[in-house]
Amino acid sequence: MTELSNNNFINTISSKIPLILLFVSILNDYDFNHLGLKYFSFNFSYILIFYYSVKKSESLGYSYIFIAGLFNDVVGGTPIGLTSLIYLIICVAASYLRNITLRPSLIKDGIFFLITILIVNSLLFVALNFIFNYELNYFDQIINITYTFLLYFLFSSLFDIFENYFVGSNNVR
Amino acid sequence: METSRDDFVIAIRSAFLKKGAQQRFSLLSLILFSIIFLILGSLNFKAINYVKITIKEIVYRSSFIVSGPENFIKDSYFTIQNHTNLYKENEKNKSELAKLKSKDLSNKFIILENQRLKNIIDDYVSESDAVVAKVLSDKGSPFLKSIIINKGSKQGLYLGMIAMDGEYLVGKVVEVNYLSSRVLLLSDLNSKIPVTLEPDGLLSILSGTGEDHGVIQYTKKYKEIQSQSIIYTSGTSGLFKAGIPIGRINSNFLDDGKKVEFFSDFSQLRFVQIFSFIKNEAE
Domains of chain A: which residue ranges? Predict the structure, then answer.
């Protein structure tokens, strides 16, 4: 009986790990900026949201993603609501991909992810630069998009391993 | 052809409107929510401002806790690195100390003379009490160079106060909450302050670059700038007192624009002093 309740507890915790990871990454800037590498930055939250919205949408609730976006706006100092909007657009793209895909493949997901982040980063750039008068470095954005795209494959594999071996769920798409 | 168009519409409609098993809101309603937030936020709507302040207090505090393990690893790394350089630094410090001691005596005389002269020209001479603030979180993002400190309007902070690391300028307060504030660092892309370059006395603007150095802009006398020139605040804007040291022109970068190496290492800030400068009315 105790073992059963322990197992339930572990299952609950491990199913919440993506959500915890999302909030920790937002509050802590989980992008290795502190390493001081000049040409390296990526957006971990984009990868996490896209992956889980495509593969296991119940892991990250849309409401939590919305709240995470508000938190990110406060941490990053951007106009409140903007990151939420960007995150939700990623969710829309992921949800569309899930609906149209019959035979999932990492390459197709990756290419769709690249198109999605190109669109959302363009929207972000336009909104910040032209509407809210923030100065952004275009080159930094390109670096960020490139590494986010490349690291999608790595993190996607890591999340697959985590879902299959630790959570043990069979319903990962 | 008709069928594929129908499929597209169904997929899009489903993406926007379908709620998952544990979803309370559809994506469309949350997107509308964010747009409303954005519009009302840009119009400075009161309710949104209260929401913003509440989220800020929660986020800044929890950000400090969450970044604890990472900061511990970072601190340990820098501590080990410091230990390895200790002997060399000690030798260097000893020789520098001897030089500084001899300079100190003449400096005391110059300070007194300077204060007397500033009183005559009605310049900023006295500073408000310093508020020492702990850095809660340091956003090393390439898009935003700012720090969050644990002092806010409760401790008397207000917008425009300046943040210093020892004797060096690091930035100014751009956001004040009740118990926390945000300091925009000099290295941020949006930071622009009037400076003077010594020994030539050139006036210019120091802009942040989003990286760990600044750049000298808006001066016609680029060629006159010497390598290793020291950058001080010029006091032109009226916000800063003149003569606060900021950094020096790095000779290694001299050909590639006039890049400024800051005296203070912004990635190592743990505590900052917050000041505002006021004129000595009694004089």
Answer: 16-167
Asked whether the beta carbons of A46 and A90 are under 8 A apart, the reply is yes
For chain A, how many helices (H) and strands (E)?
6, 0
Chain A nearest-CA residue for B70: A28
Write down the pTM of the prediction: 0.63
Listed as ranges, residues in chain A with pLDDT below 70 are 1-7, 29-38, 167-173
CB contact under 8 A, A62 and B23: yes
3-state helix vs strand vs coil in chain B, percent to 5: 40, 25, 30
Domain ranges of chain B: 27-66, 68-121, 130-283
Tell me which residue in B20, B38, B62 faces A58 most closely, judged by beta carbons. Answer: B20
A37 contact B CB<8A? no
A129 interface with B at CB cutoff 8 Å: no
Superfamily of domain B130-283 in the CATH hierarchy = Rod shape-determining protein MreC, domain 1 (2.40.10.340)
CA distance A147 to B149: 31
Q: Work out the minimum CA distance from B200 to partner chain A, whole angstroms.
A: 31
Q: How many CB pairs under 8 A join A and B?
A: 141
Whether the predicted pLDDT of B221 surpasses 50: yes
| DSSP H/E element including B238 | none
Question: CATH assignment of A16-167, given 1.20.120, 1.10.287, 1.10.1760, 3.20.20?
Answer: 1.10.1760
Considering A130-134, B140-144, B145-149, the range whose residues carry the highest mean pLDDT is B145-149
Write down the pLDDT at residue A50. 92
Query: Got the DSSP string for A77-145?
Result: TPPTTHHHHHHHHHHHHHHHHHHH-SS--HHHHHHHHHHHHHHHHHHHHHIIIIIS-----HHHHHHHH
State whether residue A100 sits within 8 Å of chain B by CB. Answer: yes
- Indicate whether B168 pLDDT > 70: yes
What was the pLDDT predicted at A17?
Answer: 87
Pair of tokens at residue B133:
């603030």
**A135 vs B190: CB contact, 8 Å cut-off?**
yes
